[in-house]
Amino acid sequence: MDILYEDNHLIVVNKAPGEIVQGDKTGDEPLSEAVKRYLKDKYAKPGQVFLGVVHRLDRPVSGVVVFARTSKALSRMCTLFQKGEVKKTYHAIVAAPPAEPKATLTHWLTRNEAQNKAYAHAQEVKGSKRAVLDYELIGRSDRYCLLEVHLHTGRHHQIRCQLASIGCTIKGDLKYGARRSNPDGSICLHARHISFEHPVSHKLIEVSAPYPTGLWQVFR
Q: Are 49 and 40 in contact (CB under 8 A)?
């Protein structure tokens, strides 16, 4: 397990692609249970270990995930996320360069529950939610481009859907138009950095997650 930050109130982990943050219908062990076991063993804790899931990443996505070790930290971190006071930076590898090297994207997203997929609309439609992000082209290789993304809203599959809508489908993301899947089932979207005010000490916490292996290392 790649622990990026740990104190008495929080633990921040670099999630590997393919891991689930919280239990689901697959029955696979979630990252949250692995973190609980780590804490129980490290601190020889009797009984059950408290661990609060503050936010999630899609299963094929990698990068920074924050967990709360106390109920107080969980409540306060959830409030920070709800108020948009947590700054998250994502990196995405895409096959096609964007038309503009730097821009703000605004769409209205609808969600198809049966398909577990979001759809982007240029104008507000029934049942849609406004989605806004900033992106910037920060790297190139022979075949791919690296984009840095900052979210202003937190919608379902927002980055995946909005980038695909401008012709910048994330590598490996078959659901949103990629030609081929990645061998490990991942998509090339990585939660690279997070910053927020600590829920108890109120100090600024900034954490970055190293890239996964494979194509990511071209942009290291």
A: yes
Question: Taking 90 as the threshold, does the pLDDT of residue 166 lie above it?
Answer: yes
Q: Where are the domains of the chain?
A: 3-219
Q: What's the rounded mean pLDDT across residues 81-85?
A: 93
Per-residue confidence (pLDDT) for residue 1, from 0 to 100: 84
β-sheet bridge partners, residue 62: 190
- Annotated catalytic residue 28: no
Among residues 2, 24, 58, 142, which one is catalytic?
Answer: 58
Whole-number Cα distances in Å, 39 to 44, 48, 80, 155, 194: 8, 10, 24, 31, 22
Q: Does domain 3-219 have CATH number 3.50.50.60?
A: no
What integer is the mean pLDDT of 183-194?
96
CA angle 11, 12, 18 (to 5 degrees): 125
Q: What is the pLDDT of residues 8-42, one digit of tens each?
A: 999 999 999 999 998 777 778 899 999 999 999 99
pTM: 0.94
